[in-house]
Every structure is written in C-alpha cells, then in structure tokens.
Amino acid sequence: MVLTPSTMPTLGTSAPSFSLNDVVTEDLITLDTFREKKGLLVMFICRHCPFVVHVQEELSRIGRDYQTKDLGLLAISSNDAVAHPDDSPQNLAAMAKELDFSFSYCFDESQDVAKAFNAACTPDFFLFDQDRKLVYRGQLDDSRPDNEKPVTGSDLRKALNAVLNNQPVSAQQIPSIGCNIKWKE
Predict the structure, then answer these.
(1) Distance CA 137, CA 123 (A)
(2) Which of 167, 169, 161 is nearest to 134 (CA)?
(3) pTM (global) more than 0.90
C-alpha cells in the first residue's frame, strides 16, 4: 500500500465525459445520466484498500441519506483487476450488494476515466455543481484507519449540502488520503 493524497485539481474544472457500465445492473452510466441533477458526486473507491474499508459504511450511509436529494452519486473503481482480483467487476458487484449501495458502481477497466478525473487514490472524491464545474475534491473527513477518530463524512457532507442549498463550497479543502490507484503496467 502506497499512501497517496488527492491530486487536488483546480476548482472550476469541468467534469470529464465518461461512459461505464454499472457492475450490478450493467446499465450504461454516462455524465449525461445525471444531467437533471443539481450536483454530481463521483467517488473513486475499490474493495481492497484499507482506507476505503474504513469508510465504506459511511459511503453507503451517504448514498441512503442523499438518494432522494437532487444529487447524482457514482462510485468508480479503476484498479487493475488482473493484479488486484479483489477489485474485479464481480467482486465490486458483491461489495455493492453487501453494503447496499444506492448508487451506481462502475468499473473503469481502461483506467481512462480515472486519468480524465486526475484521480490518484482510493477514496478520492470529486463534487461538481449543476454546471458540472468542480467545487470539491477533498477528504471525506479526518478519520483514518489508525487515528481512532470517528467516521462522520463531515467534510464531504458540508460540501454536498452547500451544493444542494445553492451555497458556495469553501475553497479550504484537505486532500483525501488513501491507497494509490493500481495502474496497469
């Protein structure tokens, strides 16, 4: 495990286009899938990373808490599934079912989507406003697997609520920290 921070792309960056299949439903998910939503949260996660395992219940809670809100939610795994079979589409689908994810979970086999987003770690969060401009690319909260702070999702939830309430999102953002994305060689 290589401890890696978010790349923190420039706020205001446009959401890149993508086209991926949901690992559970096999539905095609694109940027346009969320066109009617006030905001869009894209989360780069995986099954095996201890940082994701540490927060996975909170990610599921966020999905449930915001599923009726005017917000699109999407999880993507871009890890090399050959080198890391826990992150295969089948295992990601099992994870989504076990955790009762209420959002789509897609597999980025080519890793092109992760590169387009400048995703670097798992978990890595990208929140876009109604114009699909980046307004948040920071941590879930300040809990880590080894610091005994409770997992609350407070930083991300503040940003989500600001977008939903047409409020500005603070530019003071702390990078997410996690395992590096497992790039293909």
Answers:
(1) 11
(2) 169
(3) yes
Angle at 2 between CA 174 and CA 183, to 5 degrees: 100
CA gyration radius, the chain: 15
CATH, domain range 3-180: 3.40.30.10
Pairwise CA distance, residues 71 & 129, whole Å: 9
Residue 8 tokens, joined: 């923190």
pLDDT band at 3 (very low <50, low <70, confident <90, very high): confident
Q: What gap in Å lies between CA 127 and CA 59, rounded to an integer? A: 14
**43: which strand partners?**
75, 125
Q: Are 118 and 110 in contact (CB under 8 A)?
A: no
Which amino acid appears at position 165 of this protein? N
Q: Roughly how many angstroms between the first and final C-alpha of the chain, as a whole number?
A: 16
Beta bridge partners of 160: none
Tell me the sheet residues that pair with 5.
Answer: 177
Q: pLDDT tens across 85-124, in order?
A: 999 999 999 999 999 999 999 999 999 999 999 999 999 9
